[in-house]
Design goal:
Layout: E1 9-15, H1 33-41, E2 43-45, E3 48-49, H2 55-64, H3 83-89, E4 93-98, E5 116-118, H4 128-135, H5 137-146, H6 148-156, H7 172-185, E6 190-196, H8 207-213, H9 220-232, H10 238-268, E7 275-281, E8 286-287, E9 293-294, H11 301-304, E10 305-306, E11 308-311, E12 318-320, E13 324-325, H12 329-336, H13 351-356, E14 365-371, E15 388-394, E16 398-403, E17 409-413, H14 430-449, H15 456-461, H16 465-473
Parallel strand pairs: 1-6, 1-7, 2-12, 3-13, 4-5, 4-6
Antiparallel strand pairs: 2-11, 3-10, 7-11, 8-9, 14-15, 15-16, 16-17
Helix pairs in contact: 5-9, 7-10, 8-10, 9-10
Length: about 475
């Protein structure tokens, strides 16, 4: 970069379980005013893909430009230079606030490089009741849903307001408060990372956000039914599936409002004109597109395609069609503020694309997951020894998925089958067979770059009890 980088600071906003088509900038039928505003001013990467199907498989790329399992076979970021470490070494003040996702805690190295860091995993209050609710968010969610009429009645009587949910199940306001306090006192330059969990199951939006996304009345018993069926893994019908989609989209609107308040804090601190805003999902969410709910070990579009937007003040907005991976986030962020990327990072800077409209490198995006005996096997895999390794390749024309252990292959045509419903690998044409062989070679190259997972069991045994219980509460058993 030049001696005068286009930005002085970076705000990185990541949203757990946010699929691309939940954001208005990617789907005309949706309305997410704040995120859509960021997209209108910034660069929208229309085909952005995460490198794993769930948080511990995607975040090594997002915060350390490192594919999961690289080099040492771990799911954390302790073995490489993180984005926060790179910027801290360059003199930036750094802060990170993660809304109680245990996989983004200090145990896996995510606090590395941060002057201020809070994962809110153990910030659960002193009482037995508080600790129970913090570790059982579905129960907490039911209480929040069930008490909604009382909150609304109190609001109507003028004895309170509904600005904050009765129980902040997703720690959204804790994250906001931490970020706001950091911005009130920090001196430039700075790096601030905020991670939201509201969009992760269970979906428990405040009622006004339900009203914002549907004209249909959604009574409490239907909300509770939706939570119960998904929590117990029961089969859902069309109406319950529709209710789940409504609740999911309402949580997206809830996060959208919170991001708006963060942007207002940037303005109030007088740093908005000097701050690059990077917005991304860490993976998507499935609503029976391939037979399940939530985000089980699969590599299809609904889980791997996420929003990715970079807004640099004073730079015109644009939309980019070529595929990119989220391992490009760290090198792009440091490039925008004039800091060199560490040599071990695996992604590429997209700053030339954001600033000048240059096409990104035409590189395939590789994503991975690990699947146990079945898709829904518990415990959910955490390392390479926990099941079959699945690897996908997206090259702009094809989506290829291979089970490395069994040799099973799938191929989908992106242009005609974006939802990946028709597997072309069963009876391929010559062109399709060539694509399969080409992508299979890329899978082999990627597998060869992965580390040895042996010895990881001892690390898992040492996971803090508070982290382990929080992960279990989120379905990560």
């Amino acid at each position: 970069m030049t001696d005068a980088p286009p930005a002085s600071n970076v705000l990185l906003v990541t949203v757990d379980s946010l699929r691309a088509d939940a954001v208005g900038a990617y789907a005309d039928e949706q309305s997410t005013p704040v995120m859509d505003g960021i997209a209108a001013e910034g660069t929208v990467f229309e085909r952005a893909y995460v490198t794993g199907n769930w948080t511990p498989f995607s975040f090594p790329s997002i915060l350390a430009s490192r594919h999961v399992f690289s080099d040492d076979g771990t799911i954390g970021v302790g073995g490489t230079t993180t984005l926060a470490e790179a910027l801290s070494a360059a003199g930036f003040s750094t802060a990170g606030f993660n809304a109680a996702n245990g996989f983004l805690s200090s145990h896996w190295g995510y606090d590395d490089g941060f002057d201020e860091f809070d994962s809110f995993v153990t910030n659960v209050g002193a009482g037995l009741y508080d600790r129970y609710l913090a570790n059982h968010p579905t129960v907490e969610a039911w209480l929040q849903v069930g008490t909604a009429p009382l909150r609304r009645a109190r609001t109507l009587l003028g004895r309170g307001n509904d600005d904050r949910p009765f129980l902040d199940t997703a720690r959204m306001f804790d994250v906001e408060e931490g970020a706001s306090e950091f911005l009130e006192t920090v001196e430039e330059p700075f790096f601030l990372w905020v991670h939201y969990m509201d969009v992760h199951t269970p979906y428990v939006p405040a009622q006004r956000y339900v009203d914002a996304v549907t004209d249909e009345r959604l009574p409490i018993h239907r909300k509770l039914k939706a939570h119960t069926y998904t929590g117990l893994g029961w089969e859902v019908g069309d109406r319950t599936l529709s209710d789940l989609r409504t609740l999911y989209q309402a949580t997206v609107r809830q996060v959208d409002d919170s991001i708006g308040r963060l942007l207002e804090e940037l303005e109030a601190a007088g740093v908005a004109d000097d701050t690059a805003v990077v917005l991304a999902g860490d993976h998507g969410e499935e609503f029976l597109e391939h037979g399940h709910l939530s985000h089980y070990p699969k590599l299809y579009e609904e889980l791997i395609h996420v929003p990715f937007v970079v807004d640099v003040p004073g730079v015109e907005g644009r939309r980019v069609e070529r595929q990119v991976g989220l391992d490009d986030v760290p090198p792009t962020a440091v490039d925008l503020v004039g800091v060199d990327a560490p040599g071990e990072w695996q992604g590429s800077s997209l700053a030339p694309t954001v600033l000048e409209g240059e096409a990104p490198p035409d590189e395939p995006v590789v994503s991975v997951t690990v699947r146990g005996e079945s898709v829904t096997t518990q415990p959910i895999p955490r390392d390479l020894e926990d099941g079959d390794l699945l690897v996908s390749v997206r090259d702009g024309e094809w989506t290829y998925v291979e089970n490395v252990e069994t040799g099973e292959r799938e191929l989908y045509a992106d242009a005609t089958d974006p939802g990946q419903q028709t597997d072309l690998a069963e009876d391929p044409t010559d062109e399709q067979r060539a694509a399969i062989e080409r992508c299979s070679g890329l899978v082999a190259d990627h597998v060869a770059s992965l580390g040895d997972a042996s010895g990881d069991a001892s690390e898992e045994e040492a996971v803090d009890e508070a982290i382990e219980s929080r992960l279990a509460a989120l379905g990560y058993k």
